Amino acid sequence: MSCVAAAAVLAVAAVAQYPGQVAEKDKAPILRAVGVLEWTGDPGKPKKARLIPITIFADGQLQDGGVYMARPQPLGLSSEVQYILKQTGKGIGLFNIENAGQEQGVWVGYGKWNAMPAPKPDAPKPIAMVDENYDDRPVLHRKHHADDPAKPGGKDAGTKDGARDSDTPTLHRKDSADNSDAPAPDPDRPTLHKAKNTSDSDSDKNKPKKGKKQEDIGHVENLPEVTDPDRPRLKRGKSNGGNLEVVPSLMGIPPDMQQTVAVSDGRDTPEHPWVFHWANHDDELQTKAKLEAAARTVLGLDPPPAPPTPAAKTKTVHAKTRLTLPPAPAPLADEQFRVFELAYGAGATLVLTAHTDAPEKEQKFVTLVAQPDFYGGVQILLKNVTDARHLDDSPRLRLVDAVDAEADNRGELLFEARGATERHFVLYRVLRGQAEPIFTSAPLGFVAVSD
User: Fold this and answer.
1) CA–CA distance, 287 with 291 (Å, rounded to integer)
2) What are 152-171's pLDDT values in tens digits?
3) pLDDT given at position 130
4) What is the DSSP code string of 107-150?
5) CA atoms of 442 and 422, how far apart (whole Å)
6) 33: cis peptide before it, omega within 30°?
7) What pTM, to 2 d.p., does this model score?
8) What is the location of CATH 2.40.128 in the chain?
9) 183 contact partners, CB below 8 Å, separation of at least 6
10) CATH number, span 281-302+328-440
11) What's the mean pLDDT in 313-342?
């Protein structure tokens, strides 16, 4: 995925910089950055935006992208680093880092959202010309020997022993010294003359003279803002010549803020969509209904059981039967239901997030990660339940997206754990019927909601 999410971006790090595992000489070490772009406005034309570095995969380990090689800004926020913005694994744009700064003690990057480059069209295939008079039947030719008689009237009749085949073409070298038999030139034939180059005399002056060895001249250019020669280099985007076109910085968490995954990798890797395709639409609806029922149960939204029906009197002759309909299920506010295929050939991984339809200070939040089981139900792998009064102790999990953070062609689930006064990001790996956290970022202290 060349600059292309994916965005593409990290280059080879010096082996001496990493004291851990040493890669083979013919293989470049994997260096991959994952971030989250937060913005307001329309996709592609944000009003305000910032990029938060989440992880950097280096030396086979996930490092905190917010502090990794911060000198002073983190490596993932170096100038002109390019990220691929992804949605369910598909690239939706590029974000070029122009500069970086701190918001309430946390490093964030600022830059510009660019469109994905158009795919290069395939080269037109050459059109084969067909000769209608061409006969593709094989023709056999007899090899001539030295004692074979020469063909009468052939071109080789005058050759020695008649050994040369009359049909064999003969190449003759033109003798410039003997032109006595050459035909006279045609006076009406046009003649091409080479124009005299007036700059030849000037260029000859700059040519090195024979016998004098030309001195080797080395050119040295200073790299901007680089002080450590062993610092890993990131794949840089196109420079705009110093004319920064940076989107205004985003402060706080406004109600209309949107998030998307950003990936930066120096290697060109193909896109890996994480969307799961159902065999039929009915299976999707039934699975979603079962997961919604599980969410209502953990939120305490199930209706109370109906009172028992009193026994009918034996003397009653005509009993009136009333048909009572079950109450409508309680609504789930701000519900999001997404299904992922986190590896090729893997089953469905379900994610549902919602909260109760109540005033803000009385809301309850739920996040469920599940997978369908063999009996037609759903198996809950992760359950996060909290309420507005206990967000500091138990923050709510908000799904960002699926992302391949370890460059192993397998997706992880990236969540934002949002509390009342701070937040952080968590990566979950879903494998063998379990959902386990594999990375938790440092707390980010700018959770205050702003307009």
Assistant:
1) 6
2) 555 444 444 444 555 544 44
3) 60
4) EEEEEEEEPPPPPPPPPPPPPPP--TT---S----PPP-TTSPP
5) 10
6) no
7) 0.67
8) 281-302+328-440
9) none
10) 2.40.128
11) 77
